[in-house]
Design goal:
The longest helix has 38 residues. Helix content is 40%, strand content 27%. The strands form 5 sheets. Strands 2-1-7-6-3 form a 5-stranded antiparallel sheet. A 5-stranded antiparallel sheet has the order 9-8-12-11-10, with helices on both faces. Strands 14-16-17-19-18 form a 5-stranded mixed sheet, covered by helices on one side. The protein is of the alpha+beta class and 476 residues long. Helix 6 packs antiparallel against helix 8, helix 14 runs parallel beside helix 15 and helix 15 packs antiparallel against helix 16. Strand 18 and strand 19 form a beta hairpin. The protein is elongated, with a radius of gyration of 33 Å.
Length: 476
């Protein structure tokens, strides 16, 4: 069988910073991206209290600690969209403190008793983009862009031209919407790319992006304008037409709708700023699918091992005989697992599996005839065990137990159905067994119950013949 997955290695290879704290806010894990971002080594953080490793007083510490405790005590994910937090630079980087702005998500991990045992933090350093917005739009509380002076300045003067270029070239998408119709006043390059390079400046949202109206975004903008309260969205799904007359394409966005507040308190528009996180969301979904599939495979494998142990024990006369038979059957299962691992579980070749199971025997006595067939993973695992039992039986009692014996293996695929025949020739005379042994039960269960195929075993006097048919288009 394949070895266990090294989840520590997987965690350490994640490209974005993650760390884990226990209930007392002491470090229990951190990946390399986290250590690189903060310029620390794991030896410096292992077991350390968070606020001793990164001391801070005042509002920043209070907000961070409150978020962590909310996640711990409520058992619910807690977000900090933006938080300034200065970090101490290591001595080899010059020492002192460096002001940073972060975006953090805190996810509670329950223990066996249901209480939160650990808190996982996923954090991103957003200092650069926040400072860019401060330069472009003026400073405000948490750089939330409430100062609209520079937005009104237009292209007047070289300074404003420079600021406009900063705005246009920012890596996050940005747009300014004005008035009750949410008319586009300004969009940057990233926003234009997101919407398929459409020319929307001067157009109301309903006309510029008609596909988003029924998705609730106009209603959401109306609420921000009416309440003067910002809206922060994370991994929000939006269907956009990104090519002329093309189909709608699903994208996932992190964004903020920030009201532009006038000196008299009225809201004249909304600043839109965010990033396309579609790749991250799809990668997360793929990871969940892979984990679900891994869980399914592990359960199936354990069930198979359990059945092998139970049935082998039932037929073994001595502990030694049980150990030999059980080890041989586990080896057969392991060989098929290895073949599937080599292909990243995309499947395994039928001829490859047969060759592995028949490797101990003289290839001159074995004839194979059939097309190259790649078996789906679930079929490959089941047939690997079937071929092992057939080969073991042939070596003990059948064609491979004498020098004159031969095996003739033929197969074909018709209408997505694999038809296979195992035929033994030249061995000792065959008689039908008086009892249903483990091998025949495993073959019938593997083909009939697991693969929902048909199998027939003929104990012909000239040699055993096993024929089976399984569908290749089943989803496992």
């Amino acid at each position: 069988m394949t070895g266990p997955i090294d989840f520590a290695a997987v965690f350490d290879r994640l490209p974005t910073p993650y760390m884990m704290l226990d209930r007392d806010l002491r470090y229990v894990a951190a990946n390399q991206a986290y250590l690189d971002t903060l310029g620390r080594t794991w030896a410096e953080l292992d077991g350390a209290f968070l606020f001793e490793a990164f001391p801070s007083d005042g509002e920043s510490r209070e907000r961070l600690e409150s978020s962590l405790l909310r996640a711990r005590d409520s058992g619910k994910v807690d977000h900090l969209p933006l938080i300034p937090y200065a970090i101490e630079r290591p001595a080899h980087l010059g020492g002192g403190f460096e002001d940073r702005i972060w975006s953090a998500t805190h996810t509670p991990i329950p223990g066996p008793d249901g209480r939160t045992a650990y808190i996982v933090q996923h954090t991103q350093d957003v200092t650069a983009i926040q400072r860019l917005k401060e330069v472009a739009f003026g400073r405000g509380e948490m750089a939330m862009l409430q100062d609209d002076v520079l937005l009104r300045a237009g292209a007047a003067g070289a300074q404003n031209d420079d600021l406009r270029r900063l705005f246009m070239q920012a890596p996050s998408f940005m747009a300014v919407l004005r008035g009750p119709e949410h008319r586009f006043d300004l969009v940057n390059n990233a926003y234009t790319q997101l919407i398929g390079w459409r020319d929307v400046v001067g157009l109301p949202l309903r006309e510029a992006l008609p596909e988003v109206v029924e998705q609730g975004f106009v209603t959401l903008l109306d609420r921000v304008t009416a309440t003067a309260e910002a809206f922060i969205g994370r991994e929000i799904k939006v269907a956009l037409q990104r090519t002329p007359d093309g189909p709608l394409e699903d994208r996932f966005l992190d964004f903020i709708y920030q009201p532009i507040i006038e000196p008299d308190g009225s809201v004249s528009g909304v600043l839109v700023e965010g990033s396309d996180v579609t790749d991250k969301v799809l990668a997360g979904e793929q990871q969940r699918l892979l984990l679900d599939e891994l869980n399914h495979r592990v359960k199936n494998t354990l069930a198979t091992v359990q059945a092998i142990a139970r049935q082998t024990l039932r037929g073994a006369l001595t502990p030694e005989a049980f150990a030999r038979a059980f080890e041989a059957r586990l080896l057969a299962l392991s060989q098929t697992h290895n073949a599937l691992t080599d292909s990243q579980w995309a499947g395994a070749g039928l001829r490859q599996i047969l060759s592995q199971e028949l490797a101990p025997y003289d290839p001159a006595r074995i004839a194979m005839e059939g097309p190259d067939v790649n078996l789906p993973a679930r079929i490959a695992l089941s047939l690997g065990m079937v071929f092992h039992e057939l080969a073991t039986n042939a070596a003990k009692y059948g064609a491979l137990s004498t020098e004159a014996g031969r095996l003739r293996l033929t197969w074909s695929v018709v209408n997505d159905a694999l038809g296979f025949e195992w035929r033994e020739e030249g061995g000792p005379p065959v008689t039908a067994p008086t009892r249903h042994g483990f091998g025949s039960r495993l073959i019938e269960r593997s083909i009939g119950a697991e693969l929902r195929g048909q199998v027939a075993i003929d104990y012909a006097q000239g040699g055993l013949i096993c024929r089976f048919t399984v569908s290749m288009d089943r989803v496992f």
